[in-house]
Design goal:
alpha/beta; 8-stranded mixed beta sheet; B3GT2_N; single chain; Spore Coat Polysaccharide Biosynthesis Protein SpsA, Chain A
């Protein structure tokens, strides 16, 4: 008997005519994959198990910035900086694009000592800052959903948590809900020139203006809103501008930012003055080592400020 003919071989992918291939959606290089199963390399899942803090402080930091984290722990990031208020500090970081492997052991040792570092397996680059913030929102929503408030801050700020808590958050009152405030930008739009660090092509964000948003150096949101931002981010095209993207998330939720008292969030550097800084929440462009030298004077009682 003659053998039955074998079935026709299926063509390999590279043999299929281009017209027959399904189109692959192209991803703009400034747009990191999201949602995507980024893994926690360093995590602190039990921090809120005993009791939910009043405030979770999330500080964006680079993997190699050991000295910066040390200075922040001793100054505005000190968990005991506001008497009578429970504060939890966590540093957010990704993987160094070049020295990820050698830095891993250093970060693991620092993490074992201080138990305050979160790290996921995305590359730690400027255009991935949105991933860093979303990692913090993910952590709050999964491991600390009872936190009353969340502050996201960059490393290069002077942050006055005591004034933030006493003036804006007021622990004696019930926690606000669906609340976010900071330095509010309104009617601003993406920069379309590649010459800018903040370049956003139309392929990433087609609209000419952003919804209102809070400037990235430091902003505060209610704990319930952190979880909602993380959830809605799973449904939106990611934007490489972290602060603008959080504003887009709020817009998608049908919410808006709350204007802060004028001048308490400063996007530009101001000369240090204890009395002036005691009535501010944030001043941008102060390096951690610089704050370390100013902090004893700021905390000192030998200067009397006018009422």
């Amino acid at each position: 008997a003659r053998p039955s003919p074998s079935p026709p071989r299926q063509p390999y992918d590279d043999e299929v005519p281009a017209t027959a291939k399904p189109p692959r959606p192209s991803r703009q290089p400034l747009q990191p994959p999201y949602p995507y199963p980024y893994r926690f390399l360093l995590n602190e899942p039990h921090k809120c198990r005993e009791r939910a803090p009043f405030l979770v402080l999330l500080v964006a930091t680079e993997p190699a910035d050991t000295a910066g984290r040390a200075a922040i722990r001793q100054t505005w990031g000190n968990e005991s900086s506001v008497p009578g208020v429970s504060i939890l500090r966590l540093f957010l970081t990704g993987v160094h694009p070049v020295f990820g492997a050698p830095l891993r052991r250093v970060l693991e040792e620092e993490s074992a000592l201080h138990r305050d570092i979160l790290q996921q397996d995305f590359l730690d680059t400027y255009n991935n800052l949105t991933l860093k913030t979303l990692m913090g929102m993910e952590w709050v929503s999964r491991h600390c959903p009872g936190a009353a408030y969340v502050v996201k801050a960059d490393r290069d700020v002077f942050l006055n948590l005591a004034y933030l808590v006493g003036r804006l958050l007021q622990p004696q009152l019930p926690p606000k809900r669906d609340f976010m405030t900071g330095y509010v930008y309104r009617d601003t739009g993406p920069l379309r020139s590649k010459a800018y660090k903040w370049y956003v092509p139309r392929q990433v964000y087609p609209n000419d203006t952003y919804p209102p948003y809070c400037g990235g150096p430091a902003y505060v949101l209610s704990g319930d809103l952190a979880a909602k931002v993380y959830a809605v981010a799973q449904t939106l095209p990611l934007l490489n501008m972290e602060d603008s993207f959080v504003g887009i998330c709020l817009h998608a939720l049908g919410l808006s930012v709350t204007s802060s008292p004028w001048g308490v969030f400063n996007m530009h550097r101001l000369p240090y003055d204890k009395c002036k800084f005691s009535r501010l929440v944030m001043v941008h462009h102060y390096q951690p080592e610089e704050v370390l030298s100013l902090w004893p004077h700021f905390q000192g009682a030998n200067v009397t400020c006018p009422p």
